[in-house]
Design brief:
Layout: E1 8-9, E2 15-16, H1 25-41, E3 45-50, E4 58-71, E5 87-97, H2 106-123, E6 130-134, H3 138-145, E7 151-153, E8 156-163, H4 164-167
Parallel strand pairs: 2-4, 5-6
Antiparallel strand pairs: 1-3, 3-4, 4-5, 6-8, 7-8
Length: 170
């Protein structure tokens, strides 16, 4: 099965969000019920990788959601001198692959897309010291641990961090 070469911002009129199934009900529900609404409210931005098929609504193969957040200096795994108030970061709040495409390398592709997108946002003016990643469960943690650039946050092992300097190299 082929995929579009780029990701697109979620569009409930164009993308078939209801048929997406990654095996995690909360991730499916977010995409089908909340992704577009959160984008309209300015809370987060969801991007989809689409299956390259002819359909009235295009099926989603994978998606990720980015949002702005802040982190306390004390929780970040860095020796860099930072202010004592919370610093801005990009939050990779969600990343999911449709079940029928799991185990085919699509997770790495969509993750790299999300990380590069975060760097692009920072270079376009969004202040961000790094990226924080919320890990849904142990399966997701195992996936992210395959990449050597994530470090756990000191206050929560299910939250990972990577600095923007490191992301520029990805």
């Amino acid at each position: 099965m082929a995929f579009h070469q780029t990701v697109e911002r979620v569009d409930k009129g164009k993308h078939d969000l209801k048929l997406f199934d990654c095996g995690k009900p909360s991730m499916n529900q977010f995409l089908s019920r909340f992704a577009a609404k959160h984008a309209e409210l300015g809370l987060s931005s969801t991007w989809v990788l689409l299956e390259d098929v002819q359909a009235a609504k295009l099926p989603v193969a994978a998606y990720y959601t980015l949002a702005s957040a802040t982190a306390n200096k004390s929780s970040l795994p860095t020796s860099q001198s930072l202010p004592h108030y919370p610093v801005p970061v990009v939050l990779l709040a969600r990343l999911a692959i449709n079940r029928q495409h799991q185990g085919k390398g699509l997770g790495a592709k969509i993750l790299i897309s999300a990380l590069r997108h975060s760097v692009q946002l920072m270079e376009q003016g969004l202040p961000a010291f790094g990226l924080i990643l919320d890990v849904l469960d142990e399966d997701a943690l195992t996936f992210y641990q395959r990449f050597d650039f994530f470090e756990p946050l000191t206050d929560d092992p299910m939250r990972l961090f990577v600095g923007m300097g490191r992301l520029r190299q990805v």
